[in-house]
C-alpha cells in the first residue's frame, strides 16, 4: 500500500497483495513463523572462477507465509533487527546451516557455508559462545563455516569488532566482510580485521557493462584485496560480460543469478559447471 502510514511496513508478497502491517504485527507474525518453522533457508552457489567448481553456498532466509506466500528478507529482517527477534532468527539459521553443511559433508561434498550475521547478533557478548556451541552440537567442520559480517557492522565499533572477530577466528571459522566498498572502511581498518574474504557489493557488479573499459573502482578493490591476500567474491553477477571482466581481473569467486538463484537445499547444484556460461 503506497499510502501506508509512517509506522506501517508494506509487505509485497508473492501473491501480489500489499499488506500494510505495523512493525508490531509483522513482529508477532514472525515470532509465530519462527516457532512453526515457516522460515526456510535457501542456498545460493558461489563458483570458483578458475575451476568453475561450486565451492560455497550462502544461506538466505525466506518466510513462507500460509496466506501471503513467500516474503523476501528485506521486508522482515529490518523489522526483526529493530527488536531482539533477530537473535533467535540468526541462531536458527546458523544451526540449520551447520546441520546442512554437515549433511553435505557426510555425502562427500565440502561446501563452504556462509551465514549472514546481523549487527545486533554480532554485538552480543556471548555470540562466539553460541557459535562454538552450535558447531559442537551439529558436528560441523568449523573450517567450512563462514560468517558474513557487513562492512557497516564491522565499522560500528572497530575495537570490539577486532576482539570478536579474533575470538571467532580462534574457533576456526572464516570471516567475510559483506557489502564491501560502499564507503565505511579504510584500508587501515581492513588490515586490522582477521578476515579471509571480502564480498564486493552488488552495486559495483551492476556497474560492469562489458569485459573492457570499466569504472576503475572494482579493479582497484580486487587488487587491493589481493595485495592483502584476501579471497574476493563478487555478488550479484548476472551477465557473461560481468563474469568475464571479474575473472580477467582475478576475482576468486562469483555469486549471482548467472549461476543460480537461492534455492532450497534439495535443489542445490553441488557439481561443478563445465565451462563459462554463454
Ligand atoms: P545480502 O547478504 O547482501 O545477500 C545478497 C542478496 O542479493 C540476496 O537477497 C540475494 O538473493 C540477492 N542476489 C543474489 N544474486 C543476485 C543477482 O544476481 N541479482 C540480484 N538482483 N540479486 C541477487 P535476499 O535473499 O533478498 O536477501 C537480502 C538481504 O537480507 C541479505 O543481503 C541479507 O542482508 C539479509 N538476509 C538474508 N537472509 C538473512 C539471514 O538469515 N540472517 C540475516 N541476519 N540477514 C539475512
Ligand atoms: Ca551476505
Ligand atoms: Ca552482500
Ligand atoms: Ca546487501
From TrEMBL:
This is EAL domain-containing protein. It comes from Alicyclobacillus acidoterrestris (strain ATCC 49025 / DSM 3922 / CIP 106132 / NCIMB 13137 / GD3B).
